[in-house]
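I'd like us to work through together how a protein chain folds, taking it slowly. To get us started, please write out a protein record for me. Label the sequence line and the structure token line clearly, so we can match residues to local backbone shapes. Once you have written the record down, we can walk along the chain together.
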Amino acid sequence: MAPKLNDPSLFKTDVCYVNGEWVKAGSGKTFEVHDPATGKLIGTCPEFTAKDTDNAIAAAATAFREFRTKTGRERSKLLRKWYDLMMENSDDLATLITLENGKPLADAKGEVNYAASFFEWFSEEAPRVYGDTIPAGVPGNRVVTIKEPVGVCGLITPWNFPAAMITRKIGPALAAGCTTVCKAPGETPFTSLAIAELAHRAGIPKGVVNVVTTLNNTPEIGETLTTHPAVQKVSFTGSTGVGKLLMKQASSTLKILSMELGGNAPFIVFDDADIDTAVAGAIASKFRSSGQTCVCANRIYVQKGIYDEFAEKFAEKVRAFKVGNGFEEGITHGPLIHDRATSKVDDHVKDAEKKGGKVVVGGQKMPDLGSNFYQPTVITGMTKDMAIASEETFGPVAGLFPFDTEKEVVDLANAAEVGLAGYFFSRDLERITRVAEALEVGMIGVNTGLISDPAAPFGGVKQSGFGREGSKYGIEEYQNIKTITYGGMGKPMQGS
């Protein structure tokens, strides 16, 4: 089922990108990748092993010795060229995303633009890595700091944004002077491999960017990246449970870590909010990529005075959605990534119904379309004992929770073990300030449901992980600060 691309050479099957070359797995084994909308086979990818990954790490370690010496301006030009190539091939990249991820083509095109923007942003950050001159406490000493690349970085990315998650990590790594080994998601590897082909065309030196694939050997490769002595940093985006395991493994060699983990975002609508604006924000936040994003609204809290009006307007918008194959005209929402995701969503809906929730829109699988489709769903009368209140649904289900007071809803929002993103709508400036400071999350949208921006730092608190991606802070995650103290610098001038 080869995709119809303007440039068919971007579709890479049975090979990974290692040391500037396209190589097969040492064992010759491959795994299948299927279209989540139709179930049809898209193609096969190499089933890499720990030994195969060792080769990629060795290539990155060798390349680092020279790549670290390039000036920031030289690295900037490489990233800029890579950005330009992504934009030139944006239609093909979007086609690959829709084919293997399922999101509607319009959403996929938006992701490509977002993904490319990280190469653009960090191409501009690369020449602007500054150290400091620090007044010394010892007479005659001079203290300066410089920033250096940490070294080889292991990057592990998820399937829900197959383009943006890899660029958000590789962009700052290369800008800082690091080299990389990226494990592409087994569900959506072809987008990552196409981006690697564009890296080759951009002239990224061999060994600087390596992209490996696996499905069955994912735990083995994860352990390799987190324990190999040549890897100095691991950046992971995925579930909290897997993040804890990788962190434990990485402790054996004390690697630098960045963890962007699970979320359970509260979305709060106060009774002084503009209801239409809040509805639009909730739609954008909850149902983007069919709810398969770590920052999407998972618990929607609406103050009782406007609850009924909000629920009615919100449900009306959801009824207008059109679900189907992402390549079809007019489709607003595609399939979930696999049938396990569909089953989890259905379990959450049934749990809510059993405990008194009322499904006002959707609530059913869509077998006529395929095993991975689920109706966009709205449930009213939600309570805190329902699974959606404490578990990340990662699907197109919006549960509306009523609340009375500001303190009550902030306490409910903060009851989660995770703290990635949060949203709230209000026109009271004092309340906005109070609530923004009180919510225990790493990112907050005030009167907006969309917060992703390469200029904005992305990351969470509590069990949503640590570290920041994007923004001026993103490059710092790939740098070490070196302090240099010069002694004997206070001697009198000669001839005085």
Q: What stands out?
A: The chain is about 35% helix and 20% strand. The mean pLDDT is 97.
